[in-house]
User: What shape does this take?
Amino acid sequence: MANITAADVNKLRTITGAGMMDCKKALVEADGDFDKAIENLRKKGQKVAANRADRESTEGAVIAVVNADKTAGVVISLNCETDFVAKNESFVKLANDIAALALNFNTKEELLATNFNGITVEEKLIEQTGVIGEKIEIGSFERLEGAFVGSYIHAGNRIATLVSLSANVEGAEEAARNVAMQAAAMAPLALNEDGVDAETVEKEIEIAKDLLRQEGKPEAMLDNIAKGKLGRFFKDNTLVNQDYIKDSKLSVSEYIKSVDASLVVTGFKRVALA
Assistant: This one.
């Protein structure tokens, strides 16, 4: 039987993040073989993951990152079960590390399959499920590209947003961050009227008509009045038409044009924990 030293146990703990007793047990079972011990710990993670597959992972950390030339960004959520784990420094670091990797990919599936210090991201999440004892998974994965992309992460890592602008002009970084903050706070349904799906529009028109009937408005007038109320719905629920939170005299679109007359918001992504 191999002689398992405290240094061996500490080394395995540093590599895997597992507890001291778990590391010692894994090394004993592996007769001192580090690779086999790591595999044993991963197997424990897989077992825990399977046992907790039906658990809700509604806590976590939402992270937005942008590439060096500000032309692409991603926002992901690394989900767990409890607020206690979500606030842990090592969990938040893992979320940031995975988000940085995510910049290189277009889908969550590609990200999960990529290398993370010798194992895949998916295997790392399984490993950490075993270490922490909670279901851990990547919930949301959103990518945004544009002439200029900015980001915002709300305090506590529960909401993060990306915003793309039509050009990289002077003041674009501050403008993009301000609009990303707007998107985080006001949770718009779409960028503009064209982004609202037909089903939602029809539903809002029918709701408006029902309210107008209750007010006793003539049936012949309902369509025109309802369409007018739809304009208010678009103002409240589409990003570029919303009142700008830092100056309610301006819409978001008007604020952006105050930065540069030719500048427009071209897209946004918002991820929030439930």
About this structure: The first helix runs from residue 6 to 16. The chain has eleven helices and ten strands.
